[in-house]
Amino acid sequence: MRDYLGVVWAIVVKDATVEWRTKTAFMSAVVFAILVLSILYFARDPTAVSSMDIAPGALWVTFTFAAMVGLNRAFLLERENQAIDGMLLTPVPRTAIFVGKMTGNLLFVGFVELISVPLFVLFYNVSLAGRLPQLLAVTAMATLAFVAVGTLLSAMAVRTRFAELMLPILLLPFLIPPVVGAVQLTSRILAARPASELMGWFKLLAAFDIVFCVLAILLYEATLDE
Amino acid sequence: MYVRALAFTPVERLQGLAQKIYYVHVPVAIYALAAFAVTGLLSIAYLWLRDERIDRAAEASAEVGVVFSVVMLISGPLWGKPVWGTWWAWDARLTSTLFIFLLFVGYLIMRGAIVEVDLRARFSAVLGILGLALVPFIHLTVYLFRTIHPQPILFKPSAPSLPGVMLTTILLSLGVFTLLYVGFTTQRYAVASLRALREEELLSDA
């Protein structure tokens, strides 16, 4: 178990180091997020729809698109110079490699979200006072959901033609349950609804997380060459 | 069957002639979703047995499912306009079938974007399994919104509540579409087999 976590950690550190040296992907994801947030602010009739009404949707569309930028990069990097083959030759469990990549993506998306949320508060004039723990739970669960599926699908997408186009086509259907759930939860949390109205969606997110994390880890081996 | 549907069934009192589309729409919808379920199950079987033929069958079923979905998505609005008063509504069942349809269109697009046979089979199987797991989640998600779709009257716990003539027609229609699904899928499977054979020939020639 310790060895397993050691491998996971090593991959996370490796990915973080690579990213830290250039910061290209991270910076583009952040700028992308800011752009999407501000474009969506103007994508409404200001006399008819208040910015608060579209705020939860805008937040999650932003997170989804920004995550896609990061996910596309994750395995593209490994394809260069066949780095992935080197990793697969090492005598470590292959699921550990996948969990490592997934954790790396989770960190990447997490940091992008960490920067987007204050901007979201600023742009859309929302108050998070007292709602932060709940919002944090929603964000963590939904992010885990789409990073788990996204990491697996991006490992596959990079090996097809039109790789950059393939990931969104394959991934977006899988994002419907977590994103719809997250938007519903976010709008209810921001409107300070009672916790009983949140439970159904929280259960859905939790079930999605469990099912797709397990499936992604199990199925990763099948995507590799023997 | 169409003669029967058009000439012998009574005109429904509230919906008028538009109701007759039911005899196409419902069987096609059932077989579209069944086709995707078959693809999902064959995907599991493929990863288990690693037999190329299973992959071809999964592809055939997915393709027929997509065609049936298109028929379903066209016949639905034709009925929706006179009865609901709108071509399209973001109703639960409508939305979930649309997303499942898009998922399998993606499945076919991905198949087209991979040349290597073995890789294509494995990736498709992985996607098929993920898709199978996704269906209940999509259904739950959109169900937590709300539905205006007609409630099931055929497959429900109590006895079917259709008048006799309509019941026989829909059952006949279901039978016809069963044959159609099986027929299309086996034909498509044969095409896939021939194509694989041709590819092998080309490889050995080269």
Would you mind describing this structure in some detail?
The complex is a heterodimer of chains A (226) and B (206). Chain A is mostly helical and 226 residues long. Chain A has helices at 2-22, 24-42, 51-79, 83-89, 94-124, 132-157, 163-190, 199-220. The radius of gyration of chain A is 18 Å and the shape is globular. Chain B has 206 residues and is an all-alpha fold. Chain B has one domain (20-205). Chain B is built from 6 helices and no strands. Chain B has helices at residues 2-8, 22-49, 52-84, 92-112, 117-143, 164-205. The longest helix of chain B has 42 residues, at 164-205. Classes of the chains: A mainly alpha (226), B mainly alpha (206). The interface between A and B is medium-sized, with 31 and 28 residues.
List strands and helices in order, with pairings:
The complex is a heterodimer of chains A (226) and B (206).
Chain A: H1 2-22, H2 24-42, H3 51-79, H4 83-89, H5 94-124, H6 132-157, H7 163-190, H8 199-220
Helix pairs in contact in A: 1-5, 2-3, 2-5, 3-5, 3-6, 3-7, 5-6, 6-7, 6-8, 7-8
Chain B: H1 2-8, H2 22-49, H3 52-84, H4 92-112, H5 117-143, H6 164-205
Helix pairs in contact in B: 1-6, 2-3, 2-5, 2-6, 3-4, 3-5, 3-6, 4-5
In short:
By secondary structure, chain A is mainly alpha-helical.
Helices of chain B, by number, come to: 6
Q: Average pLDDT across residues of chain A?
A: 86
Helix content of chain B: over 70%
First and last CA, distance of chain A = 24 Å
Q: Estimate what percentage of residues of chain B fall within beta strands.
A: under 5%
Q: Structural class per helix/strand content of chain B?
A: mainly alpha
Main sheet characteristics of chain A: none
Biggest sheet overview of chain B: none
Radius of gyration of chain A: 18 Å
Number of helices of chain A: 8
Task: Quote the beta fraction of chain A.
Answer: under 5%
**Fraction of helical residues of chain A:** over 70%
| Number of DSSP-assigned strands of chain B | 0
- What is the string of SSEs of chain A from the N terminus onward? HHHHHHHH
Mean pLDDT of chain B: 79
Q: Could you spell the SSE succession of chain B in H and E letters?
A: HHHHHH
Helix/strand class of chain A: mainly alpha
Give a count of the beta strands of chain A, DSSP E runs of length 2 or more. Answer: 0
